Amino acid sequence: MSTSGVEIEPIIGRYLRITLNGKPHRIYFEEAGAGIPLLCLHTAGSDTRQYRALMNEAQVTQRFRVICFDLPWHGKSSPPAGWHEERYQLGSKEYAGIILAVANALSLDRPVVMGCSIGGRIVLHLALHHAKNFRGLIGLQSGAHVDPYYDLDWLHRPDVHGGEMCAGIVSGLVGPSSPTEHRWETLWHYMQSGPGVFKGDLHFYTADGDIRKDLTLINTQDCPLWLLTGEYDYSCTPEDTALLGKSIPGSKWQIMTGMGHFPMSEDPERFLSYLLPVLDEIV
């Protein structure tokens, strides 16, 4: 909506009070559009702002109710009470349980789930263990496993600016041709990450979430699976996604030219050209 040069975006943000993994939480979520529910999962250490362009895209919101939520400890979702007495560490069962609980709390009827990075990895877990709960799964930058390629302890140290360190580590994952404006907004989200949160997410990404041995058990007859990966990504390489495509019968995969690890936020227009054909298939 626009009036005299002032524009109000169609995105609506609210809070959901819900019990997750035995603890009460206040989860922030945003949504826009109407139609088939499309539940979007952000990357490690970031939040739902990564999907800002998608929720403003009429070609999507005319047919899909796009819903994005901040994981606990991320964005506007605060940690649970007593957080100062524990160490945040994301596990695969807890992660999947959060997604299922949020979808159920919002009464989403077999939503499509699209996740990036750790979100792309958990999509594989959903395909393996909960496929019939969804009508489609879309993995962005999905890989079955990645070994740590830097010292994770640098992400949470009292003598280092954690936010700038997190942004510095992921800066090389942005595609070289991504627009400067979107590149730096993507990195800003990382600079605002809570202490130790990015490191806690990487426990799932580098250790607990390893799904290599179970890939052939995924049945795409229960739920179709699409995989989209940017060519400039050394965290989830095109070869990683090609391996998934060859290992999971019936999956569909494509490498996105010129894009990096954060397609929906680093270059939204180019990403849309790859996503829309997938959404057309789902419709």
Notable characteristics:
alpha/beta; 283 residues; eight-stranded mixed sheet; two-stranded antiparallel sheet
Rg over CA atoms: 18 Å
Straight-line distance between termini: 26 Å
SSE arrangement, N to C: EEEEEHHEHEHEHHHEHEHH
Oligomer: single chain
Separate helix tally? 10
Strand content: 15-25%
Largest sheet: 8 strands, mixed
Poorly predicted regions are none
Class per helix and strand makeup: alpha/beta
Per DSSP E runs of 2 or more residues, the count of β-strands stands at 10
Roughly what percent helix?
25-40%
Strand order of the largest sheet: 3-4-6-5-7-8-9-10
Shape call: globular
Q: Compute the average pLDDT.
A: 94
Short description:
This protein is an alpha/beta fold. It is about 35% helix and about 20% strand. The strands form 2 sheets. An 8-stranded mixed sheet has the order 3-4-6-5-7-8-9-10, with helices on both faces.
Describe the structure.
This protein has 283 residues and is of the alpha/beta class. It is 34% helix and 20% strand. It has 10 helices and 10 strands. The protein has helices at 52-55, 58-61, 92-105, 118-129, 162-171, 180-191, 197-208, 238-247, 263-266, 268-282; strands at residues 2-3, 6-7, 12-20, 23-32, 36-41, 64-69, 112-116, 136-140, 225-230, 252-256. The strands form 2 sheets. The protein has an 8-stranded mixed β-sheet with strand order 3-4-6-5-7-8-9-10, with helices on both faces. A two-stranded antiparallel sheet has the order 1-2. The two termini are 26 Å apart. The model has no long low-confidence stretch (mean pLDDT 94).
Give the topology, please.
Layout: E1 2-3, E2 6-7, E3 12-20, E4 23-32, E5 36-41, H1 52-55, H2 58-61, E6 64-69, H3 92-105, E7 112-116, H4 118-129, E8 136-140, H5 162-171, H6 180-191, H7 197-208, E9 225-230, H8 238-247, E10 252-256, H9 263-266, H10 268-282
Parallel strand pairs: 5-6, 5-7, 7-8, 8-9, 9-10
Antiparallel strand pairs: 1-2, 3-4, 4-6
